[in-house]
Amino acid sequence: MAFKIHVNDPLDANAMKALQSYEKAEVTAEHFDQDELAKRILPYDILVVRSATKATKEIIEAGKNLKVIARAGTGLDNVDLEAAKNAGIKVINTPGANSVSVAELTIGLMLGLFREIPRGTNGMKEGLWEKKKMKGYELYKKTVGVIGFGTIGRQVAERLLAFGCKILAYDVVQNSGGLDVQFAQLDEIYKNADIITIHTPLLPETKGLINEGAFEQMKKGVFIIDAARGGILDEQSLCDNLESGKVAGAALDVFAVEPPTDELRKKLIAFDNVVCTPHIGASTYEAQERVGEQIVENLINTLESM
Fold it and tell me: Which of 119, 255, 295, 303 has the highest CB neighbour count under 10 A?
């Protein structure tokens, strides 16, 4: 009997070919919105998603034949893990497959913010030459607080060390990966860091982690980088501290509301000293190829063991 697999978010073309060639699989690939997916999920044994699809309790309960939810990516905040556990559904993902891409974007966001690259580009395209108005900062020898020191956090730190930065790392598991970093508590990072970059997963204990209380402890002129998950950073508090000048600038790839079209986020991204991108951390050709290859390999190995 073949496993019925539905791919609701697109995978890399080579990964799709590999999955479709698996002799024990019948594969369909089409994106359905949440309501439509809940109506169509019943016949399927396996659901494959990326970040666009939310594997909610409603979808899981409607998928009475589901045996596996395969998340092509690192974060699992778009999968209701408790509902999946209660239904006896195995959840698999691809931790680390996109870590290089996210780390490189993080460095790019820092440099873009420090050197006002978006402003310079947009100004020149509008016929402006703002050379005398643009004075930035060096990344060289800055103290950087890396909150979340898993695979991505370590990749970011490795690159920052090449800039001569001092790294203060925070994580519940203190694994330096052989890097010259100093582990610190959050209050030490808030007090001493010139730049704070966020790399934790979105969990109940990390939601709203960087809040008004955290900003109060930070040094004046701190820079904030978030290429992790929306919701870890309290965006109202960030707005307030950008307005007051406590925060010198921010670079954001993720938001609690995506797309950020509500009034708070529109205000946030309108600041001149905010650089932003539309959640593109994993959006490189290389990362998507690795993610696709890994999720198909993991899924086939899982099905072979069932």
Answer: 295
131-145 pLDDT, tens digit per residue, is 999 999 999 999 999
What are the extents of the domains in the chain?
3-95+286-304, 99-276
Owner of token pair 């402003």: 119
Residue from 6, 154, 265, 279 carrying the catalytic annotation: 279
- pLDDT band for 106, please (50, 70, 90 cuts): very high
Give CATH superfamily name and number for 99-276.
NAD(P)-binding Rossmann-like Domain (3.40.50.720)
Report the C-alpha dihedral over residues 65, 70, 75, 80, rounded to 10 degrees.
0
The pTM of this model reads 0.89
Q: How confident is the model at residue 99 (pLDDT cuts 50, 70, 90)?
A: very high
In 3D, which of 140, 148, 141, 71 has the Cα closest to residue 103? 148
The tens digit of pLDDT for each residue in 166-223 reads 999 999 999 998 999 999 999 999 999 999 999 999 989 999 999 999 999 999 999 9
Confidence of residue 306 (pLDDT cuts 50, 70, 90): confident
Annotated active-site residue in 205, 212, 243, 258 = 258
CB atoms within 10 A of CB 88: 8
| DSSP three-state, residue 252 | strand
Question: Tokens 């966020």 belong to which residue?
Answer: 198
Neighbours of 42 (CB within 10 A): 11
> What would the two tokens of residue 77 be?
């905040």
User: Read out DSSP for 220-259?
Assistant: TTEEEEE-S-TTSB-HHHHHHHHHHTSEEEEEES--SSSS
Establish whether 31 is a catalytic residue. no
Catalytic pick among 199, 229, 265, 290: 229
229 classed as catalytic: yes
Burial per residue of 147-168, b for 16 or more beta-carbon CB atoms within 10 angstroms, e otherwise: bbbbbbbbbbbbbbeeeebbbb
Task: Note if 199 is an active site residue.
Answer: no
